[in-house]
Amino acid sequence: MFLFYFIIGSCFGSFVYLCAYRYRQPSLQIFHRSVCDLCHHPLSWKEMIPCLSWFYLYGKCRWCHSKIPIYSLFCELLGGILSVLIFLCFDGKDVIGVYLVVFSLLYCSCTDILYGLIPDRTHVFLIFGALFVLEPHEYLISFLVFLAVFIVLYFINIITEGLGWGDIKLITCLSLLMKPYLLVFSIAIASCSALIIFLPMFLQKKITRSTKIRFGPFLSFGALICLFFKLP
Ligand SMILES: [Zn+2]
Fold this sequence. Notes:
mainly alpha; binds zinc ion
């Protein structure tokens, strides 16, 4: 059963990476026949098996020999692992909502890493996911919290200009899925993990205070920790 959920998740992970990569590639349609993203040569089924094809092809396109990004393999593996975790931690109608939330977070992490942006469609999918996870009697209070978080972050950002608008909208959407103190906790996890990654680079002067940090993957990481560990 674990293997079944892993395969499903790695297929989703592969699709999520494809959507994220093609977000800024107008010549490549999402539902177009699968082709190499660089030489556009059509791919056979052997070249499209999530996780395995990357190793089968030694991480290179068979036709133009360009490198297949390691991110794609990482996204497929992560998709599989997250899918198994959803199977272990959730049941009932929550599963559909959590799938939507988790793979939306994976998608926005990819677009933020690749292009430095979080598309608005991520926020729409997160809101849909939250509608599945929340009970109908929680809709009103969640909507009020959603508005309050957005207004607070809006004014904080006007003063500090510390976050991008994509990050603010992402945090606001996450407020639908977790209690306010958990939201603060997930932001703290995101900030600490970003600090661990970027502090050595800052000390080595590879980045400066003015470098724009792509915070989406860290916010997603913090949110996933809170979501899966079901912190009280
Ligand atoms: Zn190629």
